[in-house]
Design goal:
By secondary structure, the chain is an alpha/beta fold. Helix content is 26%, strand content 28%. The protein contains twelve helices and 25 strands. The chain has helices spanning 12-24, 48-52, 67-74, 139-150, 165-176, 196-208, 255-260, 307-321, 351-356, 409-417, 422-425, 442-458; strands spanning 3-8, 30-35, 76-79, 82-88, 93-98, 104-108, 111-114, 118-120, 133-134, 157-161, 180-185, 212-215, 219-225, 228-234, 237-240, 243-246, 250-252, 284-286, 293-294, 301-302, 335-339, 342-348, 361-369, 380-388, 394-401. Helix 1 packs parallel to helix 8. The mean pLDDT is 96. The structure holds flavin-adenine dinucleotide. Residues 8-14, 35-38, 45-46, 48-49, 83-84, 115-118, 136-138, 166, 253, 256, 288-289, 305-308, 310 line the site of flavin-adenine dinucleotide.
């Protein structure tokens, strides 16, 4: 009889695991059942802002593989609108609620993949059920927001609460739809994924496209009129709103895992080993936004909910379940985004992370351009490097610039991954031609400046 693999969560991590396992083990050897509580499989949550903003016209363009594809081509039994409500490790079965048809399903497993993603942080005021308030965690969430934006009466004023990268991307999307947008952030700057001295550039670009930013402001409640949200109440007055988008961050979705007794780590995510096996629980695997992982620079366990990791981790789990050998070696915190034309990239530790991890370091910020100064389209680029003192090892990097900035972070990510010092980096053989870089690429200028800063400190 075939073994049965059950996957909980039908997006990046879960379906990567399922399809990799299927590639290695046929139907007669391994039956695969995937439970997904929403309406979609393998969708790009990352693409939601671009669909909301109108850059991507069709919702289905965000779906990499539809449930039918998994059923027909991969022989994976996808059960949509089935929410798993319990995992029973003793009986080795899951209990799922059929959200469409009603009733409960029980399904036994030999192997389980826990891939339920993350849970948005929701303060009490956001739980009131007022119409017009949206998170954007899943494609179903995105679809609900888009329906609201397109229904009459058409919303004109939007408030985005939370200035992380999702809040910033959503603010941009709403501006592109023609709404008046205010972003409320409790901290000193939006885009706290970079240090404040870099985030200030992002805030300026946001203001430049008409986004009003209110920092140091805490939301305390909502008001409604005729059953619809009408304002966001803050400790600094009320902001009129016809639609509210929440971007307050996420935490690992571990409710089911905790109830079942799976181990959780200090960051709150499910603890896994490098092959994505849940620690101490044979036959159970976990991947994606619900797990914690190793930060290769700080050496600390971290929760970094990004699609790039979810896909890789799911793939690793699936290869191993399929009988192969694969490992996930941890993360270094590389991420990119943009606000209209302004691009933002980061990798490694920010200053505050480097402090928290106990490093001695120098940090330098340089101004350069994306192309030779005389070449058409040359625009400013700011690069920040953080290097350990006295070793000179690169600990982190951030780039903000108008074009060709974000993906420049990849060169720095490779340097950091390989433990290079800023001194080594000054000699890197990076590409140069006037349309692509000044003769000294901004990355090399930053490395040279960091070497100088280290020398000054050692005197
Ligand atoms: C707006 C937005 C923009 C983003 N942009 C980027 C980006 O640019 N780059 C990047 O790397 N990452 C980005 N991300 C993050 C990325 O989308 C996530 O890291 C990735 O989707 C995580 O994949 P996952 O499979 O772990 O979880 P999810 O994609 O959250 O999938 C989990 C699935 O499990 C289902 N589920 C949950 N509980 C149950 C249950 N009890 N029973 C059945 N099903 C359940 C959910 O419905 C969901 O479909 C973005 C996310 C958002 C929301």
């Amino acid at each position: 009889m075939a073994e049965r693999l059950i996957v909980i969560g039908g997006d990046a991590a879960g379906m990567s695991a399922a399809s990799q396992a299927r590639r290695r083990r046929g139907r007669d050897d391994l039956e695969i059942v995937a439970f997904e509580r929403g309406h979609f499989t393998s969708y790009s949550a990352c693409g939601i802002p671009y669909w909301i903003g109108g850059l991507v016209p069709e919702r289905d363009q965000l779906v990499a593989r539809a449930p039918e594809t998994f059923r027909d081509e991969y022989d994976i039994d996808v059960r949509l609108q089935h929410e798993v409500t319990a995992i029973d490790l003793d009986r080795r079965e899951v209990v799922a609620r059929d959200l469409a048809g009603g009733g409960e399903v029980r399904a036994g497993f030999d192997t389980l993949v826990y891939a339920v993603g993350a849970t948005p942080r929701l303060p009490d005021w956001a739980r009131s059920g007022v119409a017009g308030v949206f998170g954007v965690q899943t494609l179903d969430d995105g679809a609900a927001l888009r329906d609201w934006l397109e229904a009459e009466p058409r919303p004109r004023r939007a408030v985005v609460v939370g200035g992380g990268y999702i809040g910033v991307e959503m603010a941009e999307a709403l501006v592109q739809r023609g709404l008046d947008v205010t972003l409320v952030e409790r901290g000193e700057q939006p885009m706290s994924t970079v240090d404040d001295d870099m985030a200030v550039l992002v805030a300026a670009a946001m203001r430049g496209v008409g986004i009003e930013i209110r920092t140091g402001v805490e939301v305390t409640g909502l008001t409604e009129q005729d059953g619809r949200v009408s304002a966001v109440v803050t400790d600094d007055g009320s902001l009129p709103a016809d639609v509210v988008v929440l971007g307050l961050g996420v935490r690992p979705n571990t409710a089911l895992a905790e109830a079942a007794g799976l181990p959780l780590g200090p960051s709150g995510g499910v603890q896994v080993d490098r092959r994505m096996r849940v620690l101490g629980v044979p036959g159970v695997w976990a991947a994606g936004d619900c797990v914690e992982t190793l930060h290769r620079v700080s050496g600390l366990p971290v929760h970094v909910p990004l699609g790039t990791h979810a896909n890789k981790q799911g793939r690793v789990a699936g290869i191993n379940i399929g009988g192969g050998y694969a490992t996930f070696p941890g993360v270094i915190g590389t991420a990119v985004t943009k606000v209209c034309e302004l691009e933002v990239g980061r990798t490694g530790l920010r200053e505050r992370d480097a402090h928290a991890a106990g490093f001695e370091f120098v940090s330098v910020v340089i101004e350069s351009t994306n192309r030779a100064g005389y070449y058409p389209g040359a625009r400013p680029m700011t690069v920040k490097l953080i290097a350990e003192r006295p070793s000179g090892r690169l600990l982190g990097a951030q780039i903000v610039g108008w074009s060709e900035a974000a993906k420049r972070i990849d060169a720095l990510a490779v340097a950091l991954w390989n433990g290079m010092t800023v001194d080594d980096m000054t000699a890197l053989d990076l590409g140069y031609a006037p349309p692509y870089a000044p003769v000294w690429d901004p990355v090399l200028v930053a490395a040279r400046t960091a070497v100088d800063a280290l020398a000054t400190h050692s005197r």
